Amino acid sequence: MKKIKSLQKLFFALMSIGIIWHSTANAQKQVFPSPSTNGAVYTISEDSTNVYVGGSFSQAGTGLFSNALTDTSVNSNFNFDSLSIKVNGEVNVVISDGAGGYYVGGSFTAGGKQNLIRVNSSKAIIATFTPNPNGAVYDLKLVGNRLYVCGAFTIMSGVTRRYIAAINKSTSAALPTDPNLNNAAYDLKLIGDTLYFGGSFTTVGTTQQSGIGALIASTGANVTINSIDGPVYSIAADTINKELYFGGYFNSIGQNKRGCAKISSTTGLSNPSFPGVVGTIYTCITDSNGGWYIGGSFSSTVGASNLAHITSGNVIDAAFKPNPNSTVYALALTGSKLYAGGSFTSIGGQARLRLVQLNKTSGVVQTWDPGCDGTIYSLTLNDTLIYATGQFNTVNAVTVLNYAAINVANSKVYRSVGTNGIVRTSIQDANNLYLGGAFSLIGKPTAGIASYTTTNSNPNLNFYGINGTINAIISDGGTGWYVGGYFTAPNGYTHLVHILASGAVDAAFDPNPNYTVNCLLLNGNNLYVGGSFNQIDLQARSYIAAVNKATGH
Length: 553
Known about the structure:
- By secondary structure, the protein is mostly beta strands.
- Helices cover 1% and strands 47% of the residues.
């Protein structure tokens, strides 16, 4: 459930507020008239018959309706119950107690209690439930007989519990579980029997642990998970060995591993033997043999710079040292050939303007040489063509603005409709090539993202557009696409959206990271997101996060 966090709430004046609910006879998601409140709403929850709303308001209803379409097939009598619980302060979270009642958390007083109450099925505050945390509650999660609470408190049910606590769901007695954080926790997420918590803390107990932690929900036992301290620009996955590879500009992820790291997707632990580099990694791809190619702006202990091969034995391949003279932003592999694109003008001791074909084992430069007059940011391969995107005017002396289709056999360039701005990423399915970047024109006005058929150079001019820059596009595994970057989109979406096959934005997917998304990876039900953000889905997550592929939560 989404919440407005404490810093954001400083913009709202405190007022006498309420928790309110309405009954509805139809559970379909439709748009119909809804009553207004006179202050911010921070949380909404529901059971089979009621929807519960909490926030910073003192009035709801009064016949004032927001502008909305009416669907006559839906119950339009969206009226608030007159028996609303009154609280003084702010409500951040409401969850069902599984017995017809609700737990309510926030920063408030109500019925002689503070910050956390339980309401029964008759909508009365339960007098015997008295945890009374001494600070705000931001999130709640019910697991069996345990109610997990996170927030800005240090006392819960009369004992010391710093920012996370587990209490008996009926009596509110504190349970032994005590992660003992050194700063606030904002969010709880349950995956299987693992409860993940995110916040602004840097220690869990006596362990240095920044921003994210985990425990076994059924027992409260700690789970070891690594944190990260800088931006992530690239993610790749080894689904056989269940490992994730991260590249970026960071100094540590569990250990001092500069620039790149390998993490188990089942344990959350980074591999201590994986080699680091000094600098920034912008791209990493598998070598299809248990190893990885990495590209960026970096140096290494074996003398490989800007482009390196990490073997399946977790060492940098000393025999693979093409050493481009500037940054590598894109890599693509097919057969025995490795393609690299970037801002370099020399590689392997030969002149190659921003695009090169190498032997994948030796790194020896091949004769294929289209040449490009500007930076290349992405490469996408099919059977006979490689699509290059970036910020350029010509490839192989042919005018192709920021996007080019190049024959992999003879480097012939096919003319296409260009864009009026940078194209940073591309990906294709069986019928279309999808381009993303910072452009507003491709044949006719568009915005940031466009689709081409792979059989001609005509873009799909009805494809969905955004306002800003696209850095990453990946398939959702079906007929839609995830798109990340630095942008705004209609209906308030920012920086990460899911586009359906129809070209419409998926309204159910709304993680809304607070800053740039650089890379995306889909692994099972998890969408891994890397970038420069420190919050996603209104949770504290620094630079890397995993969200549900369907909801973004």
